[in-house]
Automatic annotation (TrEMBL):
Residues 106-284 form the Mur ligase central domain. Keywords: ATP-binding, Cell cycle, Cell division, Cell shape, Cell wall biogenesis/degradation, Cytoplasm, Ligase, Nucleotide-binding, Peptidoglycan synthesis. Pathway: Cell wall biogenesis; peptidoglycan biosynthesis. SUPFAM superfamilies: MurCD N-terminal domain, MurD-like peptide ligases, catalytic domain, MurD-like peptide ligases, peptide-binding domain. The keyword Cell wall biogenesis/degradation applies. Cell wall formation. Catalyzes the addition of glutamate to the nucleotide precursor UDP-N-acetylmuramoyl-L-alanine (UMA). It is an enzyme of class 6 (ligase). It catalyses: UDP-N-acetyl-alpha-D-muramoyl-L-alanine + D-glutamate + ATP = UDP-N-acetyl-alpha-D-muramoyl-L-alanyl-D-glutamate + ADP + phosphate + H(+). One of its GO terms (biological process) is cell division. This is UDP-N-acetylmuramoylalanine--D-glutamate ligase. The gene is murD. Transmembrane segments: none annotated. GO terms for molecular function: ATP binding; UDP-N-acetylmuramoylalanine-D-glutamate ligase activity. Belongs to the MurCDEF family. It comes from Flavobacterium aquicola.
Length: 443
């Protein structure tokens, strides 16, 4: 069986190692450059590879192709594979066939990383033999090849879900859905929503789907489609006989006639959106019958996720916050909603079809100045030019942070929350966040 892997990054190399272990004839092809550290791994494992090209005769003879999530369906090589009827799957689909572990799959436009890390933290604290995979941690396939975990908590993007056929998490979580990556879905929001719900398509009555019951897109989809899994809603406003909710500053989770409660002020993560993430993670923990004292402890000592509303430093009584992971409008909405002081907002990058209007009232109420950090800032300037008094354009992080210091006064907050992808000026959102933190430290 010939396994061809498109993309020599974390998921590609992980799949190559697992494929080789399972006896496939493996070939890795990357249209860009492969990192030296990954090349070394491929060479040591005697796996054939190429970079900066796709050689058709070495690819079109595949029995199965694993496509890295970053490669769009409209790329020429993918179109050729499809026209030949060759099966194209994601790393998640490939690896799932080689493990009997219980999987918890978590998707959503926002909150999925925090919910994934928090869920993993609870399970690990409970002493379970658990791996963390997907968009965070080491590649799922790599871990299936090297480790023997009993449980996996997997963060799943819509791109990864597009490439599944039989993959079935025992517990699926949809944190929320808001317009994102529409450039990959023909600018049709419905296509993106359907993509997220692929997480439950193979689930049975034995499985669970945990979801935000205050989310319009989710409710609309559930109304028009059937789900076999047992539904576990969570909400900030409604109460359930089966589900999770907040009542009188207490988080309550009711599942399988069991009840779990926790005072919300003991939850370490701040903000309303994090109460939702905590309800989702607590629901998973309760389904897996983890001790209540362990869940409470884990919720109160969890440290949060880097680049997600991360407090960097306080300088001259101005708080600098790194929210570089906010790559869409909905994430920024949560960030601005949790600001309690006048805010200097650093925003911009590669726009993915954003509509900034839903931020209008929050910007009016909380933002005193906007610093645009991107190559093309026209949309942001058009949206907010008449809403804030001060708007500045810069083209590097150091300049953005220096300008923010000039525009802020005692008691203010400087918030990096870009609402956009980072690829115009940075390698990744992590690189953007690290540069922000370094620039703040250099002040």
């Amino acid at each position: 069986m010939r396994l061809v892997i498109l993309g020599g990054g974390e998921s590609g190399v992980g799949t190559a190692i697992l494929g080789k272990k399972q006896g496939y004839d493996v070939f890795v092809s990357d249209f860009g450059k492969i990192k030296d550290s990954y090349k070394e791994v491929l060479v040591i494992n005697e796996i054939a590879w190429e970079e900066e090209k796709h050689t058709e005769e070495l690819i079109l003879n595949a029995d199965v192709v694993m496509k890295s999530p970053g490669i769009p369906d409209k790329s020429p090589i993918v179109k050729q594979l499809k026209s030949k009827g060759i099966s194209i799957i994601s790393e998640i689909e490939f690896a799932a066939a080689f493990t009997n572990a219980v999987t918890i799959g978590i998707t959503g436009s926002n909150g999925k990383t925090t919910t994934t890390m928090l869920t993993h933290h609870v399970l690990k604290s409970a002493g379970l033999n658990v791996g963390l995979a997907g968009n965070v941690g080491k590649s799922y396939a790599w871990q299936v090849a090297d480790n023997n975990y009993d449980y996996y908590v997997i963060e799943l993007s819509s791109f990864q879900l597009d490439g599944i056929v039989n993959f079935k998490p025992h517990i699926a979580v949809i944190t929320n859905i808001s317009p994102d990556h529409l450039d990959r879905y023909d600018y049709k929001y419905q296509n993106y929503i359907d993509s997220k719900f692929r997480i439950t398509m193979n689930q049975t009555e034995e499985d669970f789907l945990i979801y935000d019951a205050n989310d319009e897109a989710i409710l609309e989809w559930l109304k028009n489609n059937t789900v076999r899994a047992k539904l576990i809603p969570f909400s900030l406003t409604d109460e359930y006989s089966e589900g999770a909710f907040i009542k009188n500053n207490t988080m309550e989770v009711k599942i399988n006639k069991e009840e779990f409660t926790m005072d919300t002020e003991h939850i370490s993560l701040e903000g309303k959106h994090n109460l939702k993430n905590a309800m989702a993670a607590s629901s998973v923990a309760n389904i897996l019958k983890i001790r209540k004292s362990t869940i409470r402890e884990s919720m109160s000592d969890f440290q949060g996720v880097e680049h997600r509303l991360e407090k960097v430093l306080k300088i001259q009584n101005v708080q600098y916050i790194n929210d570089s992971k906010a790559t869409n409008v909905n994430s920024v909405f949560f960030a601005l909603e949790s600001m309690n002081s006048p805010t200097v907002w650093i925003v911009g990058g590669v726009d993915k079809g954003n509509d900034y209007h839903e931020l209008m009232s929050l910007v009016r109420e909380k933002v005193k100045a906007i610093i645009c950090l991107g190559i093309d800032n026209k949309k942001i300037i058009d949206a907010f030019g008449n809403v804030v008094d001060i708007m500045v354009e810069v083209d590097n992080m150091s300049e953005a942070v220096k300008m923010a210091q000039r525009l802020s006064e005692k008691g203010d907050t400087v918030l990096l929350s870009p609402a956009c992808a980072s690829f115009d000026l940075f390698e990744s959102y992590e690189d953007r966040g690290k540069q922000f933190k370094q620039a703040v430290k250099n002040l």
